[in-house]
Known about the structure:
The chain contains nine helices and no strands. It is an all-alpha fold and about 190 residues long.
Amino acid sequence: LAFDEEEFPLAIAYEIRHTVMDRTEIFEVTLSAAMRVCVPLSKERIRKILVPIMERLCKEPEQFGVLRSEAIEMLRVQVFQSKHPTQNLSYGQAAKIVDYVLKYLVHPHGFPEVIRKRLDPVLHPVIDSPILNNYRVGLGLQAESLAQLGQEEHKRMEEKLIAEAEEEGLTVAEYDDELWERFSGPRKETPND
């Protein structure tokens, strides 16, 4: 993920920063789905966590893994579940939010092509309930929902999905879309659909 000055000039970083800040629909699309599992008023808290992380990603794209982990952990600590308002989000719930925002930004919206080419291969699959339900038995997972999905089981699912994407000759983002359509139907493209 190393970028040299020619490939990652300040102008591109500036453009990405404003793309992240200006494209609030990225958060609206993602957070409208997330609100089913988060307590009311969590949307602003999630935005306050993710926007600075995305800005840091613009400045330090080689830190993708570290920044992703940091965002997941911050959501786990600071956001609570709607069904159990005293319980924090699980790893699976937080990872779904972060991975979806990252995927939506990188593939195909927002980032310039030079950045997208570097980040697309390191995106993580967006593990949601339909994907979990179709893989959990085969992988011997204990989690029956995203609320129960911990980091270790999430990692096992990611490894399986990444391997399958590679076997199919697809990026993780492309394979994620294919699985979504297979298990859930076509994804909505606009925030108000």
